[in-house]
Amino acid sequence: MQKSLRNNRVQPENEAIFVSKRSCTDILCLLLFLCVLGGMAYIAYIANLYGHPLRIIYGQDSYGNTCNVDNTPLEEKWSEFKGHKLSGINLKGYNKVYFYNFRSIFPFYDEIPGTIVCVRTCPENITNVEDHKKFSLKAKSSLCRYDVNNSRIFNGDSEKDRCPPLPLTETIDILNRCVPRVKFPVSVSVKLSDACNLKNDILENLLEALNDIRVSWFPLLMLLLIGLAMKGVNFCQGAGKAFSLLLENPLRAAVINGVGWFVLFVGKILVAVAVLVIGIFGFNIAVDTIFLCFCLDCRENDGDSKPYFMSLALMKFSEDAKKAIELENQRSIKRENQNVNAPTNTDRGVTPVET
């Protein structure tokens, strides 16, 4: 060990620890990072200027209204909904999106346009007009367009083009979207289960492979930065040296990390103990303050001409405590009287035996 250390000391690359002649490294990576940073800043600016974050959360209907929002009429020149009579509706409480034609979500699959409305509850089993009526009364939300008179929905077919065709597919709420409930046969369910198990196995192996990086990323980063500062090398060379240094000293790295985690644990324990002590001390002060206020209230007020400031619960508690103290005093006096009146051996006619 000493011989290897002696040999390492005389190596030229170990003699010059700090590099005096330095130059810029990783210029290409820096330029790429600045380009990405500028692009993200521009995207954030455009999204903040023209976007609507609530549309991602609650979605929007076919007329430019955001669900669960008190909308205002759209006036943008580029908007296709400008001047639409159903634009700018108060949809507070209508926080779910319902699609008349679910296949219209994917234009490459179905080119038939489908109406999208905001509803309060996703429909489950609606097969006829009566079911639609019961759903509307229960959920206080119709599945038809907003300009359809609810009293006419159930009386004929005059407005059926503005209502979803019956029967309706059963839907469930997923991320505030009414998505059709799909029921697979047993064979398909088994195949899907096998596929999910295979995916889980692949993910488990991948996570195991990345576990070492997840655990040791911080020491790697610190050693990388130290190597960059001392040697003046580029990022890739610094990462390689940091990784090789960790591989050469696994036990030392484990000991240092263990000591660090132990110190952190002790710090957490000390903080918890300090908070507990301060909390108990504060509680003691609060109880003493309440007791002083209670005593002052009992001395200054009589409960008749001068009502008490204490609450009824505290008054009842104090009365119960007073009764309990009186009963305990009576019991102690009674026990003392019994001990005084108890007959001795001489009174019973028993003479002591001399030894």
From TrEMBL:
<feature type="compositionally biased region" description="Polar residues">
    <location>
        <begin position="338"/>
        <end position="355"/>
    </location>
</feature>
<dbReference type="GO" id="GO:0005886">
    <property type="term" value="C:plasma membrane"/>
</dbReference>
<comment type="similarity">
    <text>Belongs to the CTL (choline transporter-like) family.</text>
</comment>
<comment type="function">
    <text>Choline transporter.</text>
</comment>
<dbReference type="GO" id="GO:0022857">
    <property type="term" value="F:transmembrane transporter activity"/>
</dbReference>
<feature type="transmembrane region" description="Helical">
    <location>
        <begin position="215"/>
        <end position="233"/>
    </location>
</feature>
<feature type="transmembrane region" description="Helical">
    <location>
        <begin position="254"/>
        <end position="283"/>
    </location>
</feature>
<feature type="transmembrane region" description="Helical">
    <location>
        <begin position="27"/>
        <end position="47"/>
    </location>
</feature>
<keyword id="KW-0472">Membrane</keyword>
<protein>
    <recommendedName>
        <fullName>Choline transporter-like protein</fullName>
    </recommendedName>
</protein>
<dbReference type="InterPro" id="IPR007603">
    <property type="entry name" value="Choline_transptr-like"/>
</dbReference>
<feature type="region of interest" description="Disordered">
    <location>
        <begin position="335"/>
        <end position="355"/>
    </location>
</feature>
<keyword id="KW-1133">Transmembrane helix</keyword>
<keyword id="KW-0812">Transmembrane</keyword>
<dbReference type="Pfam" id="PF04515">
    <property type="entry name" value="Choline_transpo"/>
</dbReference>
